[in-house]
Amino acid sequence: AWSALHIVALSVRCCCCAAASNLIVNPNFEQTILSNSHLASNWSYVYQAGSVYSRVTDVVRPPATAALKYSNQDAKTYQINVQDMPAAVATAMAGRHFNASAWIKTDNITGADSGATIAVEWTGPGDGRGVPGAVCINQTATGCETYLAGKYLDGITGTHDWSFISAVVQIPDPVDSVRMDVYVRSGMVGV
Questions:
Q1: Residue pLDDT, tens place only, 10-50
Q2: Which parts of 3-102 fold into alpha helices (H)?
Q3: Which pTM was predicted?
Q4: In sequence order, which residues have a C-beta less than 8 Å from that of residue 178 and are 6 or more positions away?
Q5: Euclidean distance between CA atoms 57 and 61, whole angstroms
Q6: CB under 8 Å to 58, separation ≥6 — which residues?
């Protein structure tokens, strides 16, 4: 069994800023890593033992000329495609609302989880008290030094032509780092 996801036009834009430019670099996966035209620049493949992600040009949503493809044959595989925001951008995002969005095309994505989706995750100092969903990721003898939290959008399952997903995300202040994730959860398979 295999499952496929194609994604383009990732966007993180400030909701209340005068200049609402996209903070995602290479949002359509059109720029490549020079040594490998199947890998998009500015994106990292986490858990990449036999990566399920590749850059493609045959299934795209115009005006894009490329897309990210997820193709998986193992229901136990869980890999995330990530873009970390530069530190200065993350700092500027603190305390603001952003619209995170993506266009997603799926081919028989099935399973009991969220489907093909995106997330905006962030880390901050301390235990994240008051931050919904905060989880300690750096516990020390004196307490939690760093927490992880995020906004996880509802995903798309089944087979669908290009579908738009979007959510407003509030980044807490202070924040240490912010990243955009593209993923399909473990246990999600298709034909």
A1: 778 877 766 668 888 888 888 887 766 677 888 887 655 56
A2: 87-93
A3: 0.87
A4: 84, 85, 89, 90, 93, 120, 121, 122, 171
A5: 10
A6: none
